[in-house]
């Protein structure tokens, strides 16, 4: 609630509580963590969940069978609820910057990131599909999972194409004949 009031500019002056009649009990990063449900033990559980999810995501970066992105999203969720320190650590990791930073900031993925995610996924699901030759229901499930991934990353997740060609042409200096240099 305080975050919303602060964003609107209606927050109580620092040093007073929401009613404005006493010292604030929670300030800074601890206010966010505390207002989301808990004391030290709960935040420690969130941190443990974050480290477990991060470990599985790191394993997924090495092994094509284990997915990376869902575990890193779960880690981001857990670290955001644990502490500002663990959240900052997670955002500083190379794995976060490589896999999630663009998506988290722009809510979009580059074509390269989508292809890098879908190619190993398709390979693993193709192997699963081939191994389930005598299990038609299993093949149907694998096909639905693959199609759902294609639809989600192809149609739901926005594609970050960077600056458009028109913007590049408009930004290019013109020569004496009116053509780009």
UniProtKB/TrEMBL annotation:
UniProt keyword annotations, A-Z: Membrane, Transmembrane, Transmembrane helix
Keyword Transmembrane helix: yes
Coiled coil residues, start to end: none
PANTHER family for this protein: INNER MEMBRANE PROTEIN YBAN
InterPro entries per UniProt: DUF454
Membrane-spanning ranges: 44-65, 111-131, 137-157
Source organism phylogeny: Bacteria, Bacillati, Actinomycetota, Coriobacteriia, Eggerthellales
Record Pfam families: DUF454
Annotated stretches, region: Disordered: 1-33
Protein name, UniProt field: DUF454 domain-containing protein
Cellular component annotations (GO), alphabetically ordered: plasma membrane
Entry keyword Transmembrane helix: yes
């Amino acid at each position: 609630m305080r975050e919303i009031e602060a964003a609107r500019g209606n927050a109580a002056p620092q040093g007073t509580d929401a009613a404005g009649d006493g010292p604030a009990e929670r300030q800074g990063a601890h206010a966010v963590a505390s207002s989301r449900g808990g004391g030290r033990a709960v935040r420690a559980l969130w941190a443990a969940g974050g480290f477990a999810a991060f470990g599985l995501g790191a394993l997924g970066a090495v092994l094509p069978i284990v997915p990376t992105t869902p575990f890193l999203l779960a880690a981001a969720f857990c670290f955001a609820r644990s502490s500002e320190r663990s959240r900052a650590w997670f955002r500083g990791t190379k794995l976060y910057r490589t896999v999630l930073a663009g998506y988290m900031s722009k809510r979009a993925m580059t074509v390269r990131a989508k292809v890098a995610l879908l190619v190993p996924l398709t390979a693993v699901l193709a192997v699963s599909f081939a191994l389930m030759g005598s299990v038609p229901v299993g093949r149907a499930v694998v096909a639905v999972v693959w199609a759902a991934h294609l639809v989600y990353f192809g149609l739901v997740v926005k594609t970050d194409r960077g600056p458009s060609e028109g913007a590049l042409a408009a930004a290019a200096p013109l020569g004496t004949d009116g053509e780009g240099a």
